[in-house]
Input
Amino acid sequence: MSAIATGHGSGVIPHLLRHVGEHPLRERGVALLMSALHYEGRTHDAHAVYARLVQQLREGLAVGPAARSARSWT
Output
């Protein structure tokens, strides 16, 4: 998270994309990816990542995101 907070998010985005691709329901990874995208000015992409998480959780597990994930975006 420190790389993201210090403005070096673009360097971690490829790694986070790969991680989220491998583990799409791990909300912490998704939240980190959303933060990195947001800090890089890619808010629309961050929103799309969150929407995909919500959809996957609802369809796959019939649950919504944890409050922590929701707070990351809202």
